[in-house]
Write a structure and sequence with these properties.
By secondary structure, this protein is α/β, with parallel strands linked by helices. The protein has 14 helices and 19 strands. Helix 9 packs antiparallel against helix 10. 47% of the residues are buried. The structure holds flavin-adenine dinucleotide. Flavin-adenine dinucleotide binds next to helix 1, strand 18, helix 13 and helix 14.
Amino acid sequence: MTPARVLIIGAGMSGLSCAYHLKRDFLLLEREGEPGGLSRSIQVAGFTFDHTGHLLHLRHPYTTRLVPRLLKGNLLTHQRNAWIYSHGVFTRYPFQANTFGLPRKVVKECVEGFLEAQMVHIRGRPSSSRISFHEWVLATFGNGFGRHFFFPYNQKLWTVPPHVLTAEWVAPFVPRPTVEEVLTGAFTDQTKAFGYNATFSYPQRGGIQALAWAFARRLGIRVRYHTEIVQIRWKRQEVVLSNGERLRYQWLVSTLPLPRLLETMEELPSSLRRRAQQLRWNSVLCLNLGVARPHVSDKHWVYFPERQFPFYRVGFSMNFSPYSVPPGCSSLYVEFAHSPATQLDRFQLFPVALQGLYRSGLLQRSDALRVIQWLPLPFAYVIYDRHRTPAVKDIFNFLRRQRIVSIGRFGAWKYSYMEEAILDGKATAEAIA
Ligand SMILES: Cc1cc2nc3c(=O)[nH]c(=O)nc-3n(C[C@H](O)[C@H](O)[C@H](O)COP(=O)(O)OP(=O)(O)OC[C@H]3O[C@@H](n4cnc5c(N)ncnc54)[C@H](O)[C@@H]3O)c2cc1C
């Protein structure tokens, strides 16, 4: 094969999209034996599991045309049915717009704190780029919402205290209801849809990986699986594979997690090594359960802010597609976040998780589990602390000069979703072409 002008590392959504939009002169290298990265699916005993819920939030006109075309009609669209479980009751997502049903004291604290925060900020809102997430929550929603949802939930998800996080990532992920909406949602069961993911799509068959395969099938032999990059000799514009083979490039598009990319680059200047050490992230352990009972819940997913529950979210894949479970069965994914430096003890965690599922009524003690499967996600959420943005800026300035483009959720080191990965891949292909 003649050398490719562009080498792409990683066949996740961003690498696949970059290759698809380049059309020619590329070679896509993937360590695993199949495409998809985090957007892969696993079939076990008739159940289809993803690497925790992976739902398509398509808002851009381009992806809303491309994805259905690639999937050739293999796509279902849903109105989100997401909830929060706290104080022993389920309330609608988002918490800040739907306190109806919570104990009166909790509703009062949330609404009072919210109104106080609104009064203070009639004089001017703080910019989310300069303050901590803790300060941003107090200024935007007040102490009640902070104490009853934002602080405990985000501490559990990000694994660092809210004052360590910046507020750079909050748009579009945290909906901001108006005063009227907060009050309506405190006194009535408000069903209004909020946020970027109020509707979502999901493949009818094949799990989320159906989309990765739809891309990959169009790329033919220019994808090499079981091919791991172990070193990047950037001064010679060459990569070294685990089998010792060397490949030259004119452009290198990497979707590796940024710290891993920098580790593989030989002779990296020490200032950049120091920057790389400042990048922080969390890991997620996903517990997939196949349950021998139909319709264990009608919900799509539920958030758990309280510390008594070791997981931060539980979702129900059979409500994304009925074909993700065998007839008469249900399926749950249970998400636990942890620091990459600590491994969770699955034997200790499992009974505690089951107790939590029983206590919230999502499972019954009589439920038979047909499948119990653990999936570790070593890179899950990039931690936005005060070092992240200056470090990323310096690293990207350097990479650009070496004709290395680092894209995707972990390549660009950001909080993003599959649609953005597809658009990043397209934009990179166009810039290179
Ligand atoms: C818990 C969780 C839930 C999420 N839920 C959603 C959701 O509901 N909706 C949504 O849109 N997004 C969701 N996302 C985000 C989504 O997963 C990402 O935006 C998207 O999958 C990122 O794709 P990517 O190509 O950038 O990276 P990845 O999917 O990580 O792809 C990187 C690829 O590089 C390969 N690779 C790694 N090292 C090497 C090497 N040395 N050599 C060769 N190949 C290598 C990997 O095997 C992988 O295939 C979620 C993410 C997490 C963590």
